Amino acid sequence: MKCNQMTLCLFFFIVFALSSVVISEDVHAIAAKTGEVDTQTSLNVRSGPSTSHEVVGSLTPGEQVAYTDNGDGWGELVDGSGYISLHYITNHDGEPVDRSSAKHDSVPLNNERIVLDPGHGGKDSGAVANGLMEKEIVLDIGKRTRDILENAGFAVLMTRDEDVFVSLEERTAMANAWGADQFISIHANGFSNPAANGVETYYFPGSAAGKHMAANVQNQLVEHTDRTDRGIFEESFYVISHTTMPAILVETGFVSNADDASQLADANYRQTVAEAIANSVIDD
Ligand SMILES: [Zn+2]
Predict the structure, then answer these.
(1) What job does the chain carry out (predicted)?
(2) Which end of the chain is more exposed for a tag (fewer CB within 10 A), N or C?
């Protein structure tokens, strides 16, 4: 009958309309994620998915955000206000979000955050002698250390991973904003007397955690390199006194000493130093 067919048509139309609503809500639920801003200061919201895009706003620590993850390390806020780095977002269950970005494909197995700070860079060469520049030596050691720590499941932030100048203020601000657990500054020494040689590690005066870190890395260095043990020392260097987490500064040898320099020029030595630094974190 006509009337029944109309009813049937209407029925199917309603079923169809409802199902499309349900389906579209499903798609939305799959795409969006929620998390919490995990910084100690604030998190920049940018107009696009990279640090080269302009800052268009900021979020406060602990703030809840809904975003879509396009797999490039950046989240697009569902309210359309911009993009945020997922390095600083923690999911509700306290687990870090997938930090596999275009840069590194390993996913941290734990929540420990290590900042590696290769000294100098760009216009600042650091110590220069025997054909070596400190900025190049320590960047290479830093990258090698990063690779080992990331493979061991640590989240690693480098204050620089190329030959650029980064101020001491920027270095410490990066570490503090990220809420790092440990800060390790990597340097090589230079001195007017070419006889001076060996490895040494500095920590913030009175810091028990810093002293513990310094002793660990110094022991590893002395055990695995054939360098002179100059010991561990208290010192208020900028980067270890303006960081809010335990921090050390490692001197990996003297570019001004012929014997140390020949080691620092050798990739095997730089790898050994990187393993010593990484092991002091992993074995702790
Ligand atoms: Zn230096």
Answers:
(1) Probably involved in cell-wall metabolism.
(2) N
Q: Which residue has the tokens 């955050």?
A: 113
Domain ranges of the chain: 32-90, 113-282
Residue 119 Cα to ligand 1 middle (Å): 5
Domain spanning 113-282: CATH 1.10.3720.10:
no
Q: Which residues of the chain have pLDDT under 70?
A: 1-31, 39-42, 51, 91-110
> Would residue 63 be called left, alpha or beta, if left means φ above 0 and alpha means ψ between -120 and 50 degrees?
beta
In the residue annotation, 25 being an active-site residue is answered as no
Answer for the pair 125, 187: CB distance below 8 angstroms, yes or no.
no
**Cα 3 to the center of its chain, rounded Å:** 69
CATH number for region 32-90: 2.30.30.40
Nearest residue to 146 via CA among 220, 244, 138: 138
